């Protein structure tokens, strides 16, 4: 009997630690999703109150892993839903009510993202006269666009891009560190951008590539917060850039195309 009591007490202790860990994980997930917005939506005179009542909200910039990519976002939210389900299954009336509320808050997160952060746009980008811009990494869909806006507001760079260069027939190849994606841009086709599996076996870039640690705005015919890489086609009609619209925000790939004078 004594041995059984000790065993049960040990099981209860371990179960208690597991539950505390689960509740803590859910709290961190909610802070990563809504914490910074909650601070920003508080009237400015009252914001110092978070130092007293919500010190963990001041750490929201350290919880931005949920915004690293859409895959991370979906995976962590899905994990949160599973944890809510387990806590509902194990808990009593109060625990079930709280876990159900958290489950609902996590479920609406993708929709709340669009309402909180809005659509993504390049605020500081401007091309020189005589050029038009092709935004190769423009997000498709409301969620993808709002997600990129959230990355900018939370200073999350997300996927980084690398220019491989132009070929003699004016095709641009570039890739990203997210899933090792590769892309080909062909301005001579109606569908400008194509995902590819690998670089052509005979690929040899015919263009030079410049990498910058800092770059004055307005040089190279493009005004933007930061230019990371630049590659110009052999005839100079096309210029490709990896840029950041904000210093610590997401990366984008742009191409400036020279247009014929009227």
From TrEMBL:
<keyword id="KW-1133">Transmembrane helix</keyword>
<keyword id="KW-0812">Transmembrane</keyword>
<keyword id="KW-0472">Membrane</keyword>
<feature type="transmembrane region" description="Helical">
    <location>
        <begin position="72"/>
        <end position="91"/>
    </location>
</feature>
<feature type="transmembrane region" description="Helical">
    <location>
        <begin position="97"/>
        <end position="117"/>
    </location>
</feature>
<protein>
    <submittedName>
        <fullName>Uncharacterized protein</fullName>
    </submittedName>
</protein>
<feature type="transmembrane region" description="Helical">
    <location>
        <begin position="16"/>
        <end position="37"/>
    </location>
</feature>
């Amino acid at each position: 009997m004594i041995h059984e009591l000790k065993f049960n007490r040990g099981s209860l202790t371990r179960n208690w630690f597991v539950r505390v860990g689960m509740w803590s994980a859910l709290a961190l997930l909610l802070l990563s999703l809504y914490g910074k917005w909650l601070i920003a939506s508080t009237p400015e005179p009252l914001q110092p109150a978070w130092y007293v009542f919500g010190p963990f909200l001041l750490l929201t910039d350290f919880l931005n892993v949920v915004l690293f990519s859409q895959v991370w976002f979906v995976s962590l939210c899905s994990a949160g839903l599973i944890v809510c389900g387990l806590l509902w299954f194990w808990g009593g009336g109060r625990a079930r009510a709280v876990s159900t509320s958290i489950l609902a808050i996590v479920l609406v997160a993708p929709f709340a993202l669009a309402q909180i952060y809005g659509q993504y746009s390049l605020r500081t980008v401007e091309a020189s006269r005589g050029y038009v811009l092709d935004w190769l990494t423009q997000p498709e869909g409301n969620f993808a666009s709002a997600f990129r806006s959230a990355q900018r507001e939370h200073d999350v760079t997300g996927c980084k891009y690398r220019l491989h260069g132009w070929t003699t027939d004016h095709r641009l190849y570039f890739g990203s560190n997210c899933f090792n994606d590769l892309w080909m841009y062909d301005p001579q086709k109606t569908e400008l951008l194509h995902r590819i599996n690998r670089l052509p076996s005979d690929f040899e870039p015919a263009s030079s590539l410049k990498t910058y640690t800092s770059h004055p705005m307005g040089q190279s015919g493009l005004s933007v917060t930061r230019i990371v890489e630049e590659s110009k086609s052999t005839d100079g009609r096309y210029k490709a850039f990896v840029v950041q619209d904000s210093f610590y925000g997401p990366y984008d790939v742009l191409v400036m195309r020279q247009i014929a004078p009227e």
